[in-house]
Amino acid sequence: MGQVDACALSLTNVSRSYGHVRALHNLSFSVAEGRFFVLFGPSSVGKTTTLRTIAGLVAPDRGRVEIFGRDWTHEPIAGRGVSMVFQSFALYPHLTVYENLAYPLVEAGVGREEIGRRVRDTAAMLRLDKKVDRKPGTLSGGEQQRVALGRSLIRRPRILLLDEPLTNLDAKLRHEMRAELKRLHRQSGLTIVYATPDELEALSMGEEIAVLRDGGVVQTGTPDELYEAPRDLYVAGKIGSPSMNMIKGTLSRDGGVIESAIGPLPCMRKLSTAEAGEAAVVGIRPSDIRLATGGEGGVTASIAMLEPLGDVTVISMETGGQTLRLVLPEAAASGLQPGQRASIVFDPGKLHVFRASNGQAIT
């Protein structure tokens, strides 16, 4: 038997309101020690309030916060072993990088030699060792972000909380910092809880992702689990780019076929919990649709738009009043023109079926 990682953090039915505004509602998830865990969802779903609750900056109205098995719900901030990096870097402009990094240790009364050693180690890990004498104003955005990170890391927290830390950086820097954070995570073995509204960030960095909606967790899983088996329409629409095609339909008597505006869609999965004639929504990923090859029957559609993206092309096709997007290798898309008609084929094993009434996946 492999060793099971200890639970670093666990939130159980945490709720928090500000007046009439419900920020968190029965929010529950747990994070194994050493895991890179992502809180993912658009703005105002409760990501920041969740991080602030873990850090002890916000006390929940209800529920429980445990850190390494101990109840910290209503305990003070100090002693939690948690450090948080905010969206704004909040560096002291009049202090050097060295002094900014040393500041938390000076405040904590750490000895001078120990401070020097930890600043050198942290600066080296963040590749800032040549910049320690500079002021923040002379650094690039990415370097300032690394100083803000370093100020949290130097405290040697057991859990690092990151609140949309890359939002203020340009696209190229964001890409570099994503790689930098993953390297840092591998090197340090820290437990990281990372909040982001950015799907690419969530999928490329998270070992496990909690998808949030209205202050609660809709589904938790690895990037592959969320992509392959979304629990409802909300998760299906949030994970995967280009996003999943959604087709309205009704279930046939045997549950093996879904009648839709673009024709009958055969479903390989036996939908045991479905009712005949029930309204459904069929989801199909753009990568699970292809052009029919010689003599193959398919759905006839007309090409509305081509979006070349280098090695692949996204094609929007119209049929039965629906627009469907598919992703083709660049070579397969060359020669296609808007207005052209073509036949498309779905992979029947890759259809996702959801109840129209509540958006839940039909299993």
TrEMBL record:
Domain ABC transporter span(s) in chain numbering: 9-239
Keywords noted in UniProt: ATP-binding, Cell membrane, Membrane, Nucleotide-binding, Sugar transport, Translocase, Transport
Database matches in InterPro entries: AAA+_ATPase, ABC_transporter-like_ATP-bd, ABC_transporter-like_CS, ABC_transpr_MalK/UgpC-like, Mo/tungstate-bd_C_term_dom, NA-bd_OB-fold, P-loop_NTPase, Transp-assoc_OB_typ2
Pfam families (UniProt xref): ABC_tran (PF00005), TOBE_2 (PF08402)
Alphabetical list of SMART domains matching this protein: AAA
PROSITE patterns: ABC_TRANSPORTER_1, ABC_TRANSPORTER_2
Similarity remark: Belongs to the ABC transporter superfamily.
Name of the featured protein: ABC-type sugar transport system ATPase subunit
Organism, as annotated: Inquilinus ginsengisoli
